[in-house]
Design brief:
Rossmann fold; OB fold (Dihydrolipoamide Acetyltransferase, E2P)
Length: 460
């Protein structure tokens, strides 16, 4: 039996898996995509534009004329991983173009790797294309290449990330994302729906809605919700309702717990979108939240959770937390553990506080020793694991819909329930009778075994 590790980092994503057919003489580009799903969407857009210009896409260093490294700069450990990936690309290929969040500070990159060809910041698509043109000039075959290109996907065909906005208006002291990606800029409602429609038409069964702050979508619109939607709706509610009409699973990520999130919960109860909310609570003690420069109404979040569950009893709540934030006392940490006991969240991630170059939290007093951070992380994860194990045990005997992600050579199917997002949550495994299943199928399964993070079941 296979289980997911309990310490998945919330700021890391798997490297891109690429594949393409290359004609003779065709210039080809490789891509290393690091960081969160939002960065993965940026990588997909860059590669889609390049393929439309006649470039091939190489799945390895040796077949590429140049390599783009899309970096992450969220934490110092993520920066280190980005620098390591750049160094590997330089060693294996030699021609490297850097983009992404870490590219917002070009001197930081060139100071370590002066031989990179170019450095661009996050979502600077045109600058990336210009850099590629300079390093590897395009050489399209007008009879083969210059045709309308279908989008390049770096995820399996049956699910896709759908980015609805860029940037963030929050000023959390531990985060430099707004400095790198700017203030919130929402994509037009109709543009998001058109992209979603195309994805569903291409066979996508699950849309994963992402942004820096999903519940703030549309607050920058001058006229509120688009024509034809309910005038009392917030833009995110109108968008979720329209996405729910497309026939695919719709999963919401990075939803801050604003009061208007309540409007979305009835859509989950009615089956329009998945009963799943990914909410970055980060902590529970008011003083810790205040030092983070986040809303400090921890008591109200418990009230809202109770209200959401009253409207939609099947709702799954996932969140991430920081332990060892500067100034965090044992009493504040204990408040977090007590809050977790009461909240009973279904899916929980946790990471230890790290200084990030440029973050205001670096200057806070009373930084927590590393050994204390580790000890608190261990205690937090022990409690979260026990909650997860009890919640999953309660699912034994239930019949539920699952989506198939993979079937291995031994005929074991790796699936996900509506409560599981890809890469970050648990799985449901089918050990028998799954040989004929295909990725993207949605099948009914009776759960017959539960672990700490994963389920096992049989087809019904």
């Amino acid at each position: 039996m296979v289980q997911n590790p309990p310490d998945l980092r919330p700021d890391l994503a798997p490297r891109a898996q690429l594949g393409d057919t290359r004609r003779d003489g065709q210039p080809s580009i490789g891509m290393v995509s690091l960081g969160c799903p939002k960065a993965l969407v940026d990588s997909e857009r860059i590669l889609t534009r390049l393929r439309a210009e006649g470039y091939g896409i190489s799945p390895d260093y040796s077949g590429a004329d140049a390599v783009i490294v899309n970096t992450c700069g969220f934490l110092d450990s993520a920066k280190a991983e980005s620098l390591e990936a750049i160094g590997e690309a330089l060693k294996e290929n030699g021609k490297v173009i850097v983009t992404g969040c870490l590219g917002a500070d070009p001197e930081y990159i060139t100071g370590v790797h002066p031989k990179v060809q170019a450095v661009t910041g996050p979502h600077q698509y045109e600058q990336v294309l210009d850099a590629v043109h300079d390093v590897v000039p395009p050489d399209p075959d007008p009879f083969v290449d210059l045709l309308p290109a279908s989008s390049v996907s770096l995820t399996p065909r049956h699910f896709s990330y759908l980015k609805i906005s860029e940037g963030c208006n929050h000023k959390c002291k531990f985060c430099i994302i707004p400095d790198m990606r700017g203030r919130l800029v929402s994509r037009p409602h109709n543009a998001v729906i058109r992209e979603a429609e195309k994805l569903v038409e291409a066979g996508v069964q699950e849309l994963l809605v992402i942004s820096q702050d999903t519940s703030a979508y549309g607050v920058d619109f001058k006229r509120g919700v688009p024509p034809g939607t309910r005038p009392m709706d917030k833009p995110i509610t109108a968008l979720a309702r329209d996405l729910g009409q497309l026939g695919a699973w719709v999963r919401l990520h990075y939803v801050y717990p604003y009061p208007h999130v309540r409007e979305i919960i009835p859509l989950m109860a009615d089956g329009l979108i998945l009963p799943y909310l990914d909410i970055p609570f980060q902590h529970a003690h008011p003083e810790t939240l205040k030092r983070m420069a986040r809303p400090a109404a921890a008591e109200r979040t418990l009230d809202r959770i109770a209200e959401w569950r009253d409207i939609c009893p099947d709702i799954t709540l996932r969140s991430t937390f920081i332990v060892g934030y500067p100034g965090e006392t044992e009493g504040e940490f204990q408040t977090l553990l007590d809050w977790l006991d009461e909240a009973q969240l279904d899916r929980v991630g946790c990471f230890q506080y790290e200084n990030v170059d440029g973050a205001r939290s670096n200057d806070l007093p009373d930084h927590v020793p590393e050994e204390v951070k580790q000890e608190r992380w261990d205690r937090f994860m022990e409690k979260a694991q026990a909650i997860s194990e009890a919640k999953l045990a309660a699912k034994v005997g239930q019949v539920m819909d699952v989506i198939v992600d993979d079937v291995d050579e031994d005929g074991i199917a790796t699936c996900r329930t509506k409560a599981d997002a890809p890469e970050i949550d648990g799985n449901l495994f089918i050990d028998e009778g799954a040989e004929a299943l295909k990725p993207g199928q949605i099948v009914k399964v009776e759960v017959d075994e539960a672990g700490e993070y994963d389920l096992w079941g049989r087809l019904v």
